[in-house]
Specification:
The structure holds two protein chains of two kinds. Chain A is mainly α. Chain A has helices at about 5-30, 35-50, 55, 90-125, 130-145, 145-155, 160-170, 175-190, 190-200, 205-240, 250-260, 270-295. Chain A has twelve helices and no strands. The longest helix of chain A has about 35 residues, at about 90-125. By secondary structure, chain B is mainly alpha-helical. Chain B is built from twelve helices and no strands. The two termini of chain B are about 15 Å apart. The chains are: A mainly alpha, B mainly alpha. At the A-B interface, helix 6, helix 10, helix 11 and helix 12 of A face helix 1, helix 6, helix 7, helix 8 and helix 10 of B. Chain A: Keywords: Membrane, Transmembrane, Transmembrane helix, Transport. Chain A: Pfam families: BPD_transp_1, OppC_N. Chain A: It is found in: Cell membrane; Membrane. Chain A: Its main location: membrane. Chain A: This is ABC transporter permease.
């Protein structure tokens, strides 16, 4: 660094002030979306419960061998949501299951968005035949039935949480790649990119310091929307018996319920809670995502108008 | 979309790029030739995609599992000779490139291999189950596209009002619901019955048996109610949102102001001017949905024991019967490609601005 330290300090403090300002502006606009606030609130509560699960219910709720109750008890004072076929408390399992749903949802969405952003920026920046080939591959992934591909990947690989994350992540990135590429092209047509090139900025510098910060808002909105999809896919895979058999998840609970004959014996109290939990979390992420999207791109007018 | 034409497209475009038989010269022949070029391009693209699906399916099932035979016989007592004979049966003792060319040649001639579980040709199994899936998903897509278009139009036309908020809210909530869970809940409520609600629908399957003629049709329809309701409830949100967004996009356009200035009633402006233009993206959506729903029906068919491709896929997964899973994967992906192709081919007929 040849820049004098005082100048560097003012430069970085200026940058921070600017960032603070834009965050505040974002929040002021976000606050006007009531559905988005509702989603954010719901997520905060669920995340807190998931983080506090070891304190709330303890890690022994998953144990099949020394379960506290009898099999398939109806809801009561001791077991507010009843028990499963092994006598485990359903409320405990539900709370514990939030952890795996949120983990898989967040990580799969992060993986998918990371791949999509990387492919999108590279294709947008380099152009030419590289872009053509990459976008052909992207288009081709776009027409693949995502769920089927994820199911097939989960089938041919070993059963674990990581397989599920990988299967969801590598099948759902193309939409992000397309959006990011379009945004990259828009950013790179601006004069300051030319200035940066003239000053000697290389490919890496331009992509990471100029393009990436400008596509980040878009990426943020995509991630939020992607999480709810990932959570639904995770539940689906677990319901089909393709999840990690040693981990309690909401989709897995539904599979257990079906196997225990909860449907034919009318045990709706066993079936209802995991599904409601999945729907609430997925809806909360969708609402947040739509609010973020309409704050960043008011022309879309998805939820504000 | 500032160039949106004010001519309502709903009346059919008389000079549209329909390949009509006219003389070799003139604008019609030119537009027909342009359309044929466009069709050829799209057909080529679809063929490339289909080939890519074959390549992917080969590598997915031969390379990633390491040893496919071990994966299939997982958890069972199998002798070394049995493993070796299974490998020979699936052609796994040949070099990879030979396996690949053989697989492609067979697949292109309609031979998708032999099911490990049913000991029957995969193609035959699929052909047998296809009609049930087509019936279920066809009815569901028609209903939810109509519902989505209607509600989406209403929502956008009166955007920001209470009706719009309730509409989008309900649709988004149902969209977030896992389809298999909704199906199970519907079975409990309306087939098994809770409290005062009697079980009035069958718990699953497609027919009771023993019915003929009109009785058979009524019986199948009776079995279809709950699966169709499930598919519609989970699926209509997407059509609604796309229709709403594209109509909102049109609503600021000048040609609508012109139409109003001509003194047209609000209702006519909506039906004859705004909706036809807003329909275009939604039509594409409907076709892509048709491709998706075949795959999406895996869960609904499983839950309702509907004798279609989805149920077959689930049965194949639980073994796992890799040749059958592979065949169904090719069929599901092929359906997506076909539907995308149809949407692409239909689009310039609906919107003369495309494909010129």
């Amino acid at each position: 660094m040849t820049v004098p330290s005082t100048a560097a300090q003012t430069a970085s403090s200026l940058a921070w002030a600017r960032r603070r300002g834009s965050v505040a502006r974002f929040w002021r606009a976000y606050r006007t979306h009531r559905a988005g606030l509702f989603g954010l609130g719901a997520l905060a509560v669920i995340a807190l419960v998931a983080l506090a699960a070891p304190l709330l219910v303890g890690s022994d709720v998953q144990s099949v061998t020394n379960a506290p109750g009898a099999a398939l008890e109806s809801p009561s004072g001791a077991f507010p949501l009843g028990t499963d076929q092994f006598g485990r408390s359903l409320l405990g399992l539900l709370i514990w299951g939030a952890r795996i749903s949120l983990t898989v949802g967040l990580m799969a969405a992060a993986l998918s968005v990371a791949i999509g952003t990387l492919v999108g920026i590279l294709a947008g920046h380099f152009g030419g035949w590289f872009s053509t080939v990459t976008m052909r591959i992207t288009d081709w992934f776009l027409v693949m039935p995502t769920l089927v591909l994820a199911i097939v990947l989960a089938t041919v690989m070993s059963r674990s949480v990581w397989t599920v994350i990988l299967a969801i992540g590598v099948t759902s990135w193309p939409t992000t790649a397309r959006l990011v590429r379009a945004q990259t092209l828009a950013v790179e047509s601006r004069p300051y990119i030319e200035r940066a090139t003239a000053l000697g900025g290389g490919h890496g510098h331009i992509m990471s310091r100029h393009v990436l910060p400008n596509v980040m808002p878009l990426v943020l909105a995509q991630t939020t929307l992607g999480i709810s999809n990932a959570i639904l896919t995770e539940a689906t895979l677990a319901f089909l018996g393709l999840g990690d058999p040693d981990v309690v998840s909401w989709g897995g609970m539904l599979q257990d319920a079906r196997e225990a004959g909860a449907v034919s014996s009318g045990h709706w109290w066993y079936l209802a809670p995991p599904g409601i939990a999945i729907a609430v979390v997925a809806l909360a992420f969708t609402l947040c995502g739509r609010a973020v999207e309409s704050v960043l791109n008011p022309k879309l007018g998805v939820s504000a108008r | 979309m500032s160039t949106a034409s004010s001519t309502p497209l709903v009346e059919g475009a008389p000079d549209g790029p329909v390949p009509v038989k006219t003389g070799p010269s003139g604008p019609r022949a030119r537009s027909a030739r342009a359309y044929l070029m466009y069709v050829a391009g799209k057909l080529g693209g679809a063929a490339v995609s289909l080939f890519a699906v074959l390549v992917t399916s080969f590598f997915l099932f031969r390379i990633i599992p390491g040893d496919p035979v071990r994966t299939m016989t997982h958890g069972r007592q199998v002798s070394a000779e049995q493993l070796a004979s299974l490998r020979r049966q699936f052609g796994l003792d040949l070099p990879v490139w030979q396996q690949f060319t053989e697989y492609c040649a067979k697949a292109l001639s309609g031979d998708l291999g032999t099911s490990y579980q049913f000991h029957a040709p995969v193609g035959e199994l699929i052909a047998e189950k296809l009609p049930a899936t087509l019936l279920l998903t066809g009815v569901a897509v028609v209903i939810y596209s109509m519902l989505g278009l209607w509600l989406g139009t209403r929502s956008a036309w009166r955007h920001g009002r209470l009706g719009d908020k309730v509409n989008t809210g309900v649709a988004l909530t149902l969209w977030s619901v896992p389809s298999f869970w909704l199906g199970l809940l519907l079975i409990i409520t309306f087939s098994v019955g809770i409290g005062p609600i009697p079980g009035m629908f069958p718990t699953g399957g497609m027919e009771t048996g023993g019915e003929t003629g009109f009785g058979y049709v009524a019986d199948v329809a009776h079995h279809m109610v709950l699966p169709v309701v499930t598919l519609v409830a989970v699926g209509y949100a997407q059509t609604l949102l796309v229709m709403r967004a594209s109509l909102l996009d049109e609503m600021g356009s000048d040609y609508l102001t012109t139409a109003r200035a001509k003194g047209l009633r609000d209702d006519l402006v909506r039906r004859h001017h705004a909706v036809p233009n807003a329909l275009l993206p939604t039509v594409t959506m409907v076709f892509i949905n048709l491709g998706h729903v075949a795959a999406g029906s895996i869960l609904v068919e499983t839950v309702f024991s509907w004798p279609g491709l989805g149920g077959l896929f689930y049965q194949a997964l639980s073994v796992p019967d890799l040749p059958l899973v592979q065949g169904l994967f090719v069929v599901f992906a092929g359906a997506m490609i076909l539907m995308n192709l149809l949407a692409d081919l239909l689009y310039p007929l609906l919107d003369p601005r495309v494909g010129r």
